Amino acid sequence: MKKLTGFLILCFVIYIVYHDVTNGTLPAATKATTISHIQEAKSENRDSLNYKTMKIKAGDTILSIMEKERNGPLPVSIEQLIKDFEALNPGVKTESLQIGKTYKFPVYNE
């Protein structure tokens, strides 16, 4: 009897894993709706952000440039700074800045 119960539990667990992998637990429509809301928010952010254009020098990072401009710490998190920078500079990743190129940097008011 113990072997039969163990076998049934094993079959049930395998079925649950199979169902979770093939169908998932979240409906796909929710994901598409969320993506469209994020894209709208990004386009609104790009238009509403104040920015300053600056040229990159050797050794510059986004954080070092922003801290020099503010003469101190930032009023926003680093994650928010990266999101705003990438919104102002579409197609540019923060880790791939090129020396001599000009980029838009967000300006934050306290």
Explain the overall architecture.
This protein is mainly α and 110 residues long. Helix content is 57%, strand content 9%. It has helices spanning 2-23, 28-48, 62-70, 78-88, and strands spanning 51-55, 102-106. The protein has a two-stranded antiparallel sheet. It is rod-shaped, with a radius of gyration of 24 Å. The model has no long low-confidence stretch (mean pLDDT 80). It comes from [Anoxybacillus] calidus. InterPro entries: LysM. This is LysM domain-containing protein. Residues 52-105 form the LysM domain.
Report the total helices.
4
- The percent of residues in helical segments reads 55-70%
As a percent range, the share of strand residues is 5-15%
User: Helices and strands: which structural class?
Assistant: mainly alpha
Order of secondary-structure elements: HHEHHE
Regions with little confidence, pLDDT below 50 for 5+ residues: none
CATH domain class of the domain at 42-110: Alpha Beta
Q: What is the fold named in CATH at topology level of the domain at 42-110? A: Membrane-bound Lytic Murein Transglycosylase D, Chain A
Gyration radius over CA = 24 Å
Which oligomerization state do the chains in this entry correspond to? Answer: single chain
Termini separation: 70 Å
Please list the strands of the largest sheet in the order they lie side by side: 1-2
Assign the CATH architecture of the domain at 42-110.
Roll
Per CATH, the superfamily of the domain at 42-110 is: LysM domain
Query: Main β-sheet: number of strands, strand sense, barrel status?
Result: 2 strands, antiparallel
